[in-house]
Design goal:
Elements lengths: L3 H15 L1 E6 L7 E4 L1 E2 L7 E6 L3 H4 L5 E8 L5 E11 L3 H7 L2 H4 L11 E15 L4 H8 L4 H5 L3 E5 L1
Antiparallel strand pairs: 1-2, 1-5, 3-4, 4-7, 5-6, 6-7, 7-8
Length: 160
């Protein structure tokens, strides 16, 4: 069974590969929305999101707003809920490092587009789940094993 450190590592690898998170502001009417995660490292954040200044998410921000992001891997074999703080951080050097053709497609003015906003998500902690409905779990149930006993090791709360 995976240890919490392994689940944490699998989360970061999956996020780097699949890149889409739903992120919203805690205690806010701003509902979570899908955003493309940009990362500069193989783990331990921060996670960056390009967006527009006129979005509800940016308009609802205060310095270090508490935020929650959720993630589902493309194969639906890993799920995570991540809590942290979200900041507007239009650092030009970071924009230059993270800029790519997919981001450019959204901003006609390029890196100097007046609508451009870069958000920095500093994750604090996460709860990570591995899929418990695998074929193997189904076979074990048919053979009389209780899947809950094994599944408890497929969930971890981790510090990020």
């Amino acid at each position: 069974m995976p240890a919490p450190a392994e689940l944490k590592s699998r989360f970061w690898a999956s996020l780097k590969s699949d890149m889409t998170m739903m992120i919203g502001l805690d205690n806010s009417k701003v509902i979570p929305r899908p955003m493309t995660a940009q990362m500069e490292t193989d783990g331990n954040g921060p996670v960056w999101f390009f967006t527009a200044k006129d979005t509800e998410l940016v308009q609802g921000l205060t310095d270090g707003s508490k935020a929650t992001a959720t993630f589902t891997s493309k194969g639906h074999d890993l799920f995570a809920t991540v809590q942290g703080n979200l900041w507007l951080d239009n650092d030009r050097a970071t924009i230059d490092r993270l800029w790519n053709r997919f981001v450019a497609a959204w901003f006609e003015g390029g890196k100097d587009d007046p609508r451009l906003a870069l958000l920095r998500f500093d994750p604090r902690e996460a709860e990570i789940w591995l899929d418990g409905s695998s074929v193997m779990a189904g076979i074990k149930m048919l053979l009389g094993f209780d899947p809950k006993d094994e599944y408890k090791d497929n969930v971890a709360k981790v510090e990020l």
